[in-house]
Amino acid sequence: KGPAACLMMQNEEPIFAHIIPRPAAFGADEAPPARVIEVGKGFTIHFSHAHEDTNDRIVCYTSGWPPANTTEFLGAWGGEAPDFSCIPPARLWRTELDLRTGTCISHAVVKGLENCCIEHPHVHPAYYSSAHPDPDSATTLSPPAPSPPRLVHMSLGDCIRGCTSPPQGYLTVNVETGETQKYFLGVRCFAEEPVLVPAPSRAPPGPMRE
């Protein structure tokens, strides 16, 4: 067996979020301890981004599976081709955590994307370290972002029946308005993980541009 075949899914176990404060944001003796918050059931695959608001709440976006009866971790990916009928559909999830009460306020698929099979969500690179920018690595192409990102870009499979399928295009969603843009590559064409490259000059801002 390979490493992945040795892992077994525990579908009845909840997801736990581990909140670890950045030491640079506090004094030497002031940093609060790390916290663990129970989120809910399912399986988180990839993180898009997260941000903390002024009300001590953390909002994060991830790709993941809903609670399923899958027992083998990625077991259906073996052989010449994956058996997509045995793979749970990946969705874009929005999770909100309350740091004051140590509880999960919500953990649900992003509204409007309930039937979209997606993977590899990303945001503009300027947002990767917007809270604590490194002046030595800052460039004019990717200045520190002043606010949480609105747009999440990801690969897109089936968006009609909501079943698991190979990625055949790309999806951008505005998480503030719910507006989406879809781009399909064509028949018998498949998409890879999106790579976002900042343009040398910024286009005028709009609902689907950052």
Automatic annotation (TrEMBL):
InterPro entries: Carotenoid_Oase (IPR004294). Keywords: Iron, Metal-binding. This is Uncharacterized protein. GO terms for molecular function: metal ion binding; oxidoreductase activity, acting on single donors with incorporation of molecular oxygen, incorporation of two atoms of oxygen. Residues 128-147 are annotated as: Disordered. Binds 1 Fe(2+) ion per subunit. It comes from the Eukaryota. Its cofactor is Fe(2+). Belongs to the carotenoid oxygenase family. Fe cation binds at H46.
